[in-house]
From TrEMBL:
Keywords: Hydrolase, Magnesium, Metal-binding, NAD. Its EC number is 3.6.1.22. Signal peptide: none annotated. SUPFAM superfamilies: Nudix. The lineage of its organism: Bacteria, Thermotogati, Synergistota, Synergistia, Synergistales. The keyword Metal-binding applies. Belongs to the Nudix hydrolase family. This is NAD(+) diphosphatase. NCBIfam families: PRK00241.1. Its cofactor is Mg(2+). One of its GO terms (molecular function) is hydrolase activity. Residues 103-228 form the Nudix hydrolase domain.
Length: 231
């Protein structure tokens, strides 16, 4: 993602542009050739935009990226291979067979499980060393959100949960997820990590937490809510 190069100057907290295609009149995008002149711009990871420019710009930029990425990967009809055309309803249509597609959003669930004033936190094998978070996973075909929660917790740490309550949601564009956050209670079983995706997990008190995710994510909001209620 490109932002204006302003070394020594504080970036505006809410950018109205990120790179150059419109989404609801906000910001633009374009793919740049390898020899593009990028003087006056600098590349930053999309995750860094929250801290650099604020929550609104983070959301704008990632929506633009998702739009660009989806259009780049949906140029041809999945049924007959004909080049797709843009529709009037944010989708794309095949002019030959009529097949229609729309931007892909992958639902995922994330949950803070509590047991006797402690929260379940786990280290995912993809995390930096020492960082723990609440558990999450994608929803499978045919599952409800609650079924997905129970399955993920059972598969990853071997326990059963109950008292599932909705907490919040967040568009999470890595790559294009909708995170639906819940809180739940431990029901039965003892922690037994799967050893593949999760390599360590435990129950933590609010005053004795390991390293946790930054404020950009709903996972952190779940943990902060636990701390607030149990400190």
């Amino acid at each position: 993602m490109l932002i204006p190069e302003m070394d020594g100057i504080e970036l505006p907290r809410e950018l109205d542009y990120i790179s150059t295609g419109e989404v609801d009149g906000v910001g633009t995008w374009r793919e740049l050739p390898e020899d593009a002149d990028l003087k006056g711009w600098r590349a930053v990871p999309r995750r860094a935009l929250w801290e650099l420019t604020g929550e609104i710009s983070f959301a704008k930029a990632n929506r633009l990226y998702a739009e660009m990425d989806w259009r780049k990967n949906s140029r041809f009809c999945g049924r007959c291979g004909t080049p797709m055309e843009d529709g009037e309803d944010n989708g794309r249509a095949c002019p030959k067979c009529g097949y229609r597609i729309y931007p892909i959003i992958s639902p995922a669930v994330i949950v803070a499980v509590e047991r006797e004033n402690r929260i379940l936190l786990a280290h995912n094998s993809a995390f930096p060393s020492g960082r723990y978070s609440v558990l999450a996973g994608f929803v499978d075909l045919g599952e409800s959100l609650e079924e997905a929660l129970r399955r993920e917790i059972r598969e990853e740490v071997g326990i059963e949960i109950s008292d599932i309550r909705y907490f919040d949601s967040q568009s999470w564009p890595f790559p294009r997820s909708l995170m639906v956050a819940f809180q739940a209670r431990w029901a039965s079983g003892e922690i037994e990590v799967d050893g593949k995706e999760i390599d360590s997990a435990d129950w933590f008190a609010s005053e004795d937490l390991p390293e946790i995710p930054g404020s950009v994510s709903v996972s952190r909001r779940l943990i902060d809510d636990f701390i607030k209620r149990n400190s």
